[in-house]
Here is the input.
Amino acid sequence: MIGSSANKTTGAAPSFRVGDERLIKVTESAARKVSSLLTRQGRPQGVLRVAVVGGGCSGLQYKMDLQDTPANRDILVETGGIKVVVDPKSALYVTGSELDYVDALQDGGFKVKNPNAATSCSCGESFSA
Here is the structure.
């Protein structure tokens, strides 16, 4: 399993598991951008949440959000100097993925290279598994 070693719950602290880059890996470019965004939001110790939700032309799409801490049951991966959290359901879809950031006017932004995606739409924003 990619997530392992459950944290001990103390009081109201969230209980999450620690995973590794076999779940999701972040490129140097993406790590720099996420770190910059976290700092700009005033939470340099925050985390990037990567989730898979229903929608888009191919049925599934990625949702990314910056948060202060992991939530209950999340899997936390430290990669590229940043912390990424994935919920257990999304982990089924993103295992083995790489998150990259392209700084360009056309086709720029965050890109997910997902080996589990059977098909993806022409815009690259959604996929099917």
In short: The chain has a mean pLDDT of 86. The first strand starts at residue 4 and ends at 6. Residues 93 and 116 are 6 Å apart (CA to CA).
